[in-house]
Structures are given as C-alpha cells and as structure tokens.
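Lay summary. Proteins are chains of building blocks that fold into shapes, and those shapes determine what they do. In this project we predict the shape from the chain. Here is one chain we studied, written as its sequence of building blocks.
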Amino acid sequence: MAIFRQLRSLRYHVGVLERLFRRNDPEPTGISILLLQKRLNRFSTEELNLAMRRAWRRAYDPEKFFASSIFDGDGAVLKVGTFYVTMRHFDRRLEAEQLGDLELPNWAVHSGYSSVEYKCPSGVPEGEQRDFMYGFLALLCAELLTENSSGIFFLEERVTIPNDSQFRERLRSGQPLNPHILATEINR
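And here is the predicted shape, written in a compact code that computers can read:
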C-alpha cells in the first residue's frame, strides 16, 4: 500500500516538474536570486535537503518538504508545502541577457552561478508580499552561501550584494527583504 502511495506521489511530482521546466509555454513571472560562485557547485539532493531544514527549520517530509536534484545535477526542485522552488546551475558567467547594461562590481568575480527561482502563478506580488517572498528565499540562500560564493544577484531587481558575514546574518533574520534597501544598508 505504501509503495502505491509513493508511486502516485512520484507521478504527480514528475508532472509538476514537466510543467515547471517546459520551454514552449509562456514563462510565469517570478523572482530569481542568483548565487554567484567562483567555481560552480551543483548542489546535491542531500546538500539541498540539509539547507532547507536549516533555513526553514522543518523536518524532511517526502511528500511536503523535500529537495531533489534533477537533470543529472543541472537543476533541482524544492517542495515547500504547496509551492515549488526551482534551481538551475550554470557553468558560465552571467550573460548580457541577464545583465543588460549593468556592469558587475570587481568583487562579483564568478565562473558559474545557481539560480533560486519561484514562479508566481498569479504574477509577482508587490510591496510587503514581495519583500516577504525575498526574505523567505533568502533564508535558503544564506544556507547555500559559502566561501566559494562571491555574492548574490537579485535578477529582477538588478541588485548585487557581496557575500560577507553581515550579509549572511541579515539573510538569516527571516525578516522581509527589499534588495534595494538591503544594498543601501550593507554598502554604508
């Protein structure tokens, strides 16, 4: 009986993954935080599950709270209750497509990056709800940042912040986060 429940759950999650990664559908809008890495680290399922437990202080649950590395380590999906966070790993520097006319500071040296994304089905919320979502994802990012990480790039906000202890402490606060305000506070 338990095996049938697991198979049904697996089929459901495969369907969700197919919808999340389907290329020909219009992309729902969302928020993306890019971890700039000196050397690309494709986070394993175990590393992600541990980071989730530390960040969101919940126990692993194979149906409601888990991470799974997918596509031979090129991505991952994280299930947190009823919503999904996706990750993709890129073994290259940020490209003009992401940066536009923005020039990264010298400290943002990186040869790869990992994106942490939440696609918002009804569009990106404004104001406090948006800041809450950034704060929620920032808890996970704080657990994934290492000495290998030069900083974080908030893609939609076009804000880059260096990785240091003050920044990680702020990310771990669990408070709503406005990337523009945070950049001003950190760079004083």
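What the prediction tells us: The mean pLDDT is 85.
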